[in-house]
């Protein structure tokens, strides 16, 4: 119990070294990996999310917490795999073709990771076919696309069209975001959702999956 | 970086009296374009415009050309109707237009044709600023001095200069690959490393190249750069409550050092509109500057809508899409808005009221945000003074950061600036980090190698 509490606090405080040490101690004490995730890590990230929403935390605290959780997960992942358990939801994310802006996309990726999702970040300037290939190979439940330029927004539609052509569109929820993107545009191009900001994106993913 | 690698180092201020740091005037006015002189007593609108959502490709190129023809026609029409004393058009190339330099040059020629016609028919004084996109960060880690993206960027400058650009600018991104990561993690040594070591090295090299392109084309001037990808990113994230406001304000002050490198290499202004560090350039180098504020709300929100105008020589709208509004298309609408803004400032100056107007513009924003605190004329002189007192970009960056912290602390202590508890904690953290930095940049470079070494290409920075 002490180690689990220490892990929780280390994540909330964004201390990756302490998080890793507490995880190792808990495992040595016989705590099951999935119990550590459910009893310590998820509540810790929920607390971090609450502090962010309350404007007590900024993104740096959020990312440091995510880094602490990741460092803990590095110890747990091999054990989970060996036991045949896996992360619940996988998300593929990227900035669309022709667009090199990635800060917003990176924040969304980090917040999704912090919320417990497995995130595959394809980076920037991602061609429609690269999204398609990632969906084929990694079997995500969600695809997130970002664009900061009005002239790269059309690449979002091209990507959705490419997913349709490849017969993959029904297998994933597609979310879009970025400064020039609107809810109306999301509707027009057949995306499943749009978020104005990063924290909204996390809630949107959860809601869409809950309704799936 | 050794001092010898910098073509010029400013060791004194061009404007040291804050009451001489005014809008519309600067020690080194710039004559450029078609009968336009910037910084000689008149503020001019600088109109910036972009496309609505559209894919840029061969199939749509005719539509894109038509869009720019329409925007230029309507902007010039409004400028003439408003009887502006002069105007600057800025064409910011979109990435695809830099990757295919001929495209950017084609639009440059179209815009220049409209300005030439308006000059001939209406005697409209004007200049065309052309700003290629810095596409050098397409590969990871970015190659800043070699490779296809750099070759295309260089070619874009050359072709746009040949096609009629009067002023060349860029929003360069050297050091951003480290700054983005450091900023998001609030890692202050990393931020200083990016802003004070990597970015000035790239600026020094890149602006040497841009100045050489300008030298080869009669009448084309090297304008200036912007720390947009650094300080404006921080400001916007702070505005969205993602980063502390105090961190963004300190980043702004420190970013002035990397932007100054353009002028050390021979740029002569006007600096870029989104370079809110512009007043520091004006105080140090005496060059005219472009700024944007309340009339750029079409592009982004900011807490510095009025104060940004206090020391400007050009007044810009940042960017607006060619979309229809009730009165007309947005670029034409924003031409009128800017024209009225400038008309008021110029009328005040004409009646001897420039200082009063500047102080009203300043006072209306100054204590309502940390970003505004570091932008006042008094703050500008202090930051600029700290920069010229040091001899390397690294030390200058640290010095600028320390002054910014002092300004924020003084404002909070005087109960003029309200800072939340969290903001106060962050300000304390930043101050501690600034004073814990090593005296020599080589020590910092070595200390951050493990953390950031994989993100940047050392040869791109002469390291």
Based on CA atoms alone, the radius of gyration of chain B comes out at 21 Å
The strand order across the widest sheet of chain A is: 2-1-3-4-5
| Poorly predicted tracts of residues of chain A | none
* CATH H-level homologous superfamily name of chain B: Dihydropteroate synthase-like
What oligomeric arrangement do these chains adopt?
A: heterodimer
Roughly how many Å is the radius of gyration of chain A? 18 Å
Structural class of chain A: alpha/beta
Instruction: Tell me the strand order in the biggest sheet of chain B.
Output: 7-6-5-4-3-9-8
The CATH topology of the largest domain in chain A is what?
Rossmann fold
- Assign a percent range to the helix content of chain A: 55-70%
CATH homologous superfamily (4th level) name of the largest domain in chain A: Cobalamin-binding domain
Largest interface: A-B, 30 and 29 residues
Mean pLDDT across the residues of chain B is: 97
Strand content of chain A: 5-15%
Q: SSE string of chain A, helix = H, strand = E?
A: HHHHEHEHEHEHEH
Mean pLDDT of chain A: 90
Q: Report the uncertain regions of chain B.
A: none
* Biggest sheet record of chain B: 7 strands, parallel
Tally the structural domains of chain A. Answer: 2
Question: How would you spell out the order of helices and strands of chain B?
Answer: EEEHEHHEHEHHEHHHEEHHHHHHHH
